[in-house]
Write a structure and sequence with these properties.
mainly alpha, globular
Length: 393
């Protein structure tokens, strides 16, 4: 049995590798579709398909991971993602939309296996008072992946074409599989009296006001991230910038996200989890809303840094909120609920952005999508205040 510290190091590698692959493939697929002559609406539909099937399977996947073991689902998910990479290569060689769509569906489905299991696994390791630290380190490495992925994808696509970029994605997923195989199996201890159904557990978890704030924050995070990874590079290319510049700016956002991680604990001590999450979401979306007004690369870089700081604080806060408010034997279900909100965001963002871009232009899409996030956060603030007042009363 390998030590807890070694297990954590392996999970940090999985976190970095997963996010590098995930954040690399989304802008590459979007740019590949544009190169094929697809309209913004078609780009939105094809990119959004990746999140449609997982939307309905995230909670069952989390429940099965709780029951059958996190390592098993990590290895299965990463291997299937590598298979999706092979299909992406076939799509690049044949220019076949059907193959690309099938690859998107497979990747989206098995991504949730990897990420649900990895999050649940890391929150179960060590002592209770180590949880926040472990999650912070875990999210730090996820930020490394988010920073590296788009830059790798943009560079490889520019130098060796989309076939080369898809090949790199497949190799990265194979590396995930190797790392996951080195982990020992981990399952929560059996529950006295048996398990409750995943739907009853889901209802109980969702009734928690702090969980509701965390889920809305999760949606905001991935909705904004979807703008960055799917349409931001397309917008920059349409504005005359090169793929490498768009990849650099997205990676700059990832660098800021990385740098923000050490400040999570002091901010939480000062403000609390819910207040910190709301503030982080506002900081993340405001620079994105201003993007169509910016034409200078340096100013775009500053906007990327600011948005990255907000996104960097958001991820560990939402994971910590879900971990703090779920039982150990239901941690996978809790992370599955979080991923449902992820997939809703990743599904609706490209559809909304693509349709608005089709009829009103890219600039209006940034405004509309940012307004959606702002409204949701205002509702979150109102609900959170009501819950706090009711608890005090």
């Amino acid at each position: 049995m390998i030590s807890v510290s070694h297990q954590l190091r392996l999970l940090y590698i999985v976190s970095a590798g997963y996010w590098a692959a995930s954040q690399m493939i989304r802008p590459v697929v979007a740019m590949f579709l544009v190169a094929l002559g697809a309209s913004p609406a078609v780009v939105g539909i094809v990119v959004g398909i990746q999140s449609f099937v997982p939307l309905f399977l995230a909670i069952p996947a989390g429940s099965f991971a709780d029951r059958f073991g996190y390592r098993r689902f990590l290895t299965l998910g990463s291997l299937a993602m590598a298979g999706a990479g092979v299909l992406y290569i076939c799509a690049a060689l044949s220019h076949a939309y059907v193959t690309l769509v099938v690859a998107q569906v497979i990747e989206g489905l098995f991504e949730l296996f990897v990420w649900t299991s990895a999050q649940a696994y890391v929150t179960q390791l060590g002592r209770d008072y180590d949880a926040d630290r472990n999650v912070a380190h875990f999210s730090f490495f996820s930020a490394l992946g988010q920073m590296a992925g788009p830059a790798i994808g943009g560079f490889v696509a520019e130098k060796w074409g989309y076939t080369g970029a898809f090949g790199v994605f497949a190799a990265m997923c194979a590396g995930l599989f190797v790392s996951a195989c080195a982990l020992p199996e981990h399952k929560p201890a059996p529950v006295a009296g048996g398990r409750v159904s995943m739907w009853l557990a889901s209802r109980r978890i969702c009734a928690n006001p702090e969980v509701q704030i965390g889920m809305i924050g999760t949606f905001a995070n991935l909705f904004i991230t979807g703008m960055w990874t799917s349409f931001y590079p397309v917008y920059l290319i349409s504005a005359g910038f090169t793929p490498s510049i768009s990849g650099f700016l997205i990676s700059l956002k990832g660098l800021a996200s990385l740098a923000a991680r050490p400040f999570v604990s002091p901010i939480v001590r000062c403000m609390g989890h819910s207040s910190a999450l709301i503030l982080a979401s506002v900081v993340a979306v405001a620079p994105v809303a201003a993007t169509p007004l910016i034409r200078n690369v340096a100013l775009l870089g500053l906007a990327a840094l600011a948005s990255g700081i907000g996104l960097g604080l958001n991820l560990p806060l939402t994971i910590a909120i879900m971990a703090r408010n779920t039982r150990p034997e239901e941690r996978g279900i809790g992370m599955g609920l979080r991923l449902v909100m992820n997939r809703v965001a990743l599904l609706t963002n490209p559809l909304i952005f693509g349709l608005v871009s089709e009829y009103a232009g890219f600039g209006q899409s940034f405004y509309v999508c940012s307004a959606i996030v702002a409204v949701l956060m205002l509702l979150a603030v109102r609900r959170w205040r009501f819950a706090v007042q009711r608890q005090r009363g």
